[in-house]
Design brief:
The chain is an alpha/beta fold. The protein has one domain: Spore Coat Polysaccharide Biosynthesis Protein SpsA, Chain A, CATH 3.90.550. The chain has 7 helices and 11 strands. It has a 7-stranded mixed β-sheet with strand order 5-4-1-6-10-7-11. A two-stranded antiparallel ribbon has the order 2-3. The protein has a two-stranded antiparallel ribbon with strand order 8-9. It is globular and about 60 Å long.
């Protein structure tokens, strides 16, 4: 597989004082995500982008790549400087804050990306709700209809982005206009954005393993 996994990580952020090193199960969020990736791809194809020496120590222990990330730079600069360090043709950009996207989903997404020769593939959650945008009805009319009849919308989960390296360097965005969406369910789409989300996600760990067993 000519693809590399990139995982941006820091040791402090808005949802926990330890950032992506916050405890999760019997490990940390970052190590949890690295473990999922190792079930899908070789260690040498996994890269952690960070400015943290604590995280560098974990990458050494886990025997995965480390890309130094400068502080206080734009998202575009961060993408460009990170990707230039990678030799693989395609990039799978992941976030530890989506802990329930596992190796099976990564493989399924990559298989679809290759089979359909897609420019990009992004994980997303479908919602069928009454949506307003800029104070206007977005996906329903004045005539009241059942929620099940509403045209669905999709929300990017920030869990997995697959893109060609060259196009990523050219456009410097993880969400290009021609992106194809890969639908995941509400459990898989769980994202940690604040302390409440983090607490809920930790309580859901047992369900994650139960789903694996049932599958």
């Amino acid at each position: 597989m000519d693809i590399a996994i990139v995982i941006p990580a820091q040791d402090t952020n808005q949802y926990h004082k330890n950032g992506d090193l916050a405890p999760f199960g019997d490990t940390t969020l970052l190590e949890w995500k690295i473990s999922q990736c190792k079930e899908f791809i070789k260690n040498s194809q996994i890269y952690i982008a960070s400015s943290s020496n604590k995280i560098k120590a974990i990458t050494d222990k886990e025997q995965v790549g480390f890309i130094h990330r400068r502080d206080n730079i734009s998202n575009e600069q961060m993408i460009s400087e990170t990707i230039l360090n990678i030799k693989e043709k395609d990039i799978m950009w992941l976030n530890v804050t989506s802990p329930f996207i596992n190796a099976t989903i990564y493989k399924n997404m990559y298989d679809q990306y290759q089979k359909e020769n897609l420019p990009s593939l992004i994980s997303a959650k479908k919602i069928q709700e009454y949506i307003f945008f800029n104070d206007k009805k977005l996906n329903f009319s004045d005539a009241f209809i059942s929620r099940k009849d509403i045209k669905p919308a999709f929300v990017v989960t920030n869990g997995c982005y697959i893109l060609n390296k060259n196009s990523l360097l050219e456009n410097l965005t993880l969400i290009p206009s021609d992106a194809t969406l890969y639908e995941v369910d509400s459990f898989i789409s769980t994202e940690i954005k604040d302390m409440t989300d983090y607490t809920i996600a930790r309580d859901m760990i047992s369900l994650y393993f139960k789903r694996d067993i049932d599958a």
